[in-house]
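re: that chain from earlier
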Amino acid sequence: MTLELDPQRTTRVDYRSTFGWPVERHRDGLRLVTGSGVGAVVVPRAMSDSVLARLRRQGCSGPALGLPTRRERITVLLVETDDFTVAQAPLPEGVRVLPAGSVIPLPDERQLHGPAQWLVEPDPFQRWLPSVGAVLATIAAAGQVHRELLAW
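^ sequence. v structure.
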C-alpha cells in the first residue's frame, strides 16, 4: 500500500489522496465538505468519551475531531454515508447528522494552534469509515445508558 504525502510536507498524509475524502484548502486551512459518501455526526462533548469507547470496543472506531463552537466543544465523528439509514432508537439530545455540503475544519500542520484537534486520528492502514448506521446505533445505546444512570 502506498501512502500519498502532501508535496509541501513529507510528514503529512494527504486526506484526499490517501482516504478519498472531499477536502479543500481554504484561507483558514483545510476543510472537509460532507457528501460523496463521507458524512459526519456531531456528539456533545459530555458524552463523546463514552461513545468513542463503545465504538472502539465494537471495532467501529473511526476518525473523530474535537471542535469548539460558540456554546461548547463538540466531537465530530466521520462516517460512511453510502447507505440511507434511520436511527432505530431516539438519539440523545444534541446529537445530529450533518447534511451533505457541511464544512468541517480539519487539523492542519500549517496552523499549529488551529481549532480542530484529532481525538481519533485517521489511520492510513484502516482507510474505511464506520457506517452511519453503526455509529448512530452506538450513540443511541450510549445515550440510553446515560439516561438510565441519570434516572437512577
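The longest helix spans residues 132-151.
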